[in-house]
Amino acid sequence: MSATLKWEGPERRMAQSTVNLDALVPREDFVAPAETSGGSPRQTVGLSDLVRGGFFQNNLRKPDFQRETTHWSPGKVVDLIRVFLDRELIPAVILWERGDEVFVIDGAHRLSALIAWVRDDYGDGEDSNRFFGAGITDEQRKVAKRTRDQVKKDIGTYAEFAGLVGQTVLDPVKARRLAAIGRESMIIQWVTAATAKAAEDSFFKINQAAQPIDPVERRILQSRTSPNAIASRCIVRGARGYKYWSAFDDEKRERIEALGSKLYDDLYKPPHKQPVTSSDQPIAGQGYNALPFVFDLVSVCNDLRIANTLTAKKVEEALPPDTDGSRTVEMLERVNRRIEQVSTDAAGSLGFHPLIYYYARSGNFLPGAFLASLEFAKRLNDEGRKDDFTKVRRRFEDYLFENKVFVSLTINRLGSGARSLTRIADLFWEIFEGFHAGLTEEKLLDRLTAKEAFVYLKAADIPPPNAELPIGKRASKQSKSAAFIREAMAHPIRCPICQGAVHSNSMTFDHDTRRRDGGDNQSGNLKPAHPYCNTGFKA
Ligand SMILES: [Zn+2]
């Protein structure tokens, strides 16, 4: 059913690729005691100040609450470098001095783009490797390479220009830019706030005016010492990067890091690639720039209200700070238990196949469908309906896969991520109850569309014109993914107990003849099965 692709607009926007410059200016705890400094601080910053080993960059910091420096496209990074070298106007950067450290209040992206150029680090260089460890994703490397290639083509590398010093440069554009490297600078505006609190307030004032911050991001920023924010950051980075939990005692720190790194692996391994050419996809997409999604995930698993553009004003204040780490550990453990209901080889895991439950036909990850599946699994568990589900699971999955357009229509109507999660979870429940009641597919659809909440599913009958992606010279990644997913899921590995699809992240091996009945451990007697079907299901 190629018609589904038309409805994936809101999700596709999430896949846009931006450059990860987050490693280039280190984060520092903003709430440490400040000493007043005297003297007369500099009024500008130039490129030579930003090279590795430079005196100025050595003390440059980002406040720990500042959003990640990952919002610029390759084009925007290249443009900033070009604008600087061509002596066009760049808005002043706003800095605040605390003791010997200099905090960037506004302008982290601008400064980081220039640092990226002088250090040749667009998210894959020396600083990024040190900061992210093994956590640099393929996507991050790909975008870094694309940025570097464009810089080479449009401007030239910093090293190239350094090699021109002392030479006669004939190309007038190059000569002018070479001179600009030594001469140009960005204006610094100093915030005169005497305390960290006042500096933080001016940060919010400045940044809200310049570009409205996403409500979820603002929640994360404002609640940076809250357990849900610490837990989210820990999961997103697989316990690497800046350690927001560094003030807790050893035991708590170890537990937080162990859980953060396990959950990262559970969610994001093996790495997601477009086009999809393997059914071995991670359960949560590509984990790149995923902080708002994980923040929602932590909220859902801990029964916290979710901030979104519709409810932003109604959401209560940030949770109180976690002073000793115990709330953060609790929250991570709750996320872990919820993930173990849908994936991993934990005993109760239903082992949902991500290509059936969480991905669009185009191969794009659907955050709303993922969170909805967590809610659906919890409800099955809480109401003691897992055995009922297992009995109709094959029909349920076939139907869901054939009618992915229902999920897409719901997202299209209500918005992506958390906004559509309750409705999708309800949809899953209705389908499950329908098959449990023995309805035919036709009767099930009648029953669904008779409900006010699902009237809009009738639109699935009307194929939108030109619903297939625009036909270009080459097949798009999404078209290739759709073809692969259609073929791969026609014959997935099936669980011998429920006949549902089995995924590599949640695979156990069922003994065809049980051990106690004399079955052996030879491969002929073993079949891949869902963990729950294998250990918990009673027919
Ligand atoms: Zn099964």
What would your notes on this structure say?
Helix content is 45%, strand content 6%. The protein has 539 residues and is of the alpha/beta class. The strands form 2 sheets. Strands 1-3-5-4-6-2 form a 6-stranded mixed β-sheet, with helices on both faces. Strands 7-8 form a two-stranded antiparallel sheet. A hairpin with a 2-residue loop joins β4 and β5. α10 packs across α13 and α15 packs across α18. The N terminus is likely disordered. The structure holds zinc ion. Zinc ion binds next to loops.
- Count the beta strands: 8
Please work out how many helical segments DSSP would assign. 21
Largest sheet: 6 strands, mixed
Structural class: alpha/beta
Small-molecule binders: zinc ion
Outline, from the CA principal axes? elongated
- CA distance, first residue to last residue: 34 Å
Given as residue ranges, the uncertain stretches (5+ residues, pLDDT < 50) are: 1-15, 464-470
Helix content: 40-55%
**Gyration radius from CA atoms, angstroms:** 26 Å
Strand order of the largest sheet: 1-3-5-4-6-2
Q: Secondary-structure element sequence?
A: HEEEHEEHHHHHEHHHHHHHHHHHHHEEH
Assembly classification: single chain
Percent in strands? 5-15%
Mean model confidence by pLDDT: 86
SSE blueprint and pairings:
Elements: H1 9-12, E1 27-28, E2 44-45, E3 60-63, H2 74-85, E4 93-98, E5 101-106, H3 108-119, H4 126-132, H5 138-154, H6 158-164, H7 172-183, E6 186-190, H8 196-210, H9 215-222, H10 227-236, H11 250-268, H12 291-301, H13 326-342, H14 354-357, H15 367-382, H16 386-402, H17 404-414, H18 421-436, H19 441-450, H20 477-488, E7 508-511, E8 526-529, H21 531-535
Parallel strand pairs: 1-3, 3-5, 4-6
Antiparallel strand pairs: 2-6, 4-5, 7-8
